[in-house]
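Duplicate of #3305? Posting structure anyway:
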C-alpha cells in the first residue's frame, strides 16, 4: 500500500499507535465493548492507519489480552469529536490492518 498520508481520501500505511491514538480508542471503548459483546480488561492500541476526510478516519489495531486483537474504525471531526463506526473481533496480531472495504 502506498503511503498516502495527507492525501484526502487515501489511507496511510500502518503506523505505531501514539498516546493520541490510545485516547481516541479509549473514547469509544464502551461502544466497542457493546458492539462486540465483551468487556476488555486489556485495551492497548498498537497500530493504526488514517484517512483524511472532512476530519479524520482511523482504523486502530488494539490488543485486548495475550494474542487477541480487535480492529476499531472511528471518526474524529474537525471539532475533535470522536465517533465510533465499527469494530471487528476475533483477530490475531498478524491479521493485516487494512482500509475498510
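Output from current build:
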Amino acid at each position: 500500500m502506498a503511503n498516502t498520508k495527507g492525501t484526502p481520501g487515501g489511507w496511510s500505511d500502518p503506523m505505531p499507535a501514539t498516546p493520541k491514538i490510545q485516547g481516541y480508542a479509549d473514547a469509544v471503548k464502551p461502544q466497542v465493548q457493546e458492539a462486540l459483546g465483551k468487556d476488555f480488561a486489556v485495551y492497548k492500541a498498537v497500530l493504526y492507519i488514517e484517512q483524511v476526510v472532512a476530519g479524520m478516519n482511523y482504523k486502530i489495531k488494539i490488543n485486548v489480552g495475550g494474542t487477541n486483537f480487535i480492529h476499531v474504525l472511528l471518526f474524529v471531526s474537525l471539532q475533535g469529536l470522536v465517533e465510533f463506526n465499527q469494530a471487528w473481533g476475533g483477530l490475531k496480531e498478524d491479521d493485516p490492518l487494512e482500509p475498510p472495504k
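Confirmed duplicate; merging threads. Residues 68 and 92 are 5 Å apart (CA to CA). Residues 15-91 form a domain with the Nuclear Transport Factor 2; Chain: A, fold (CATH 3.10.450).
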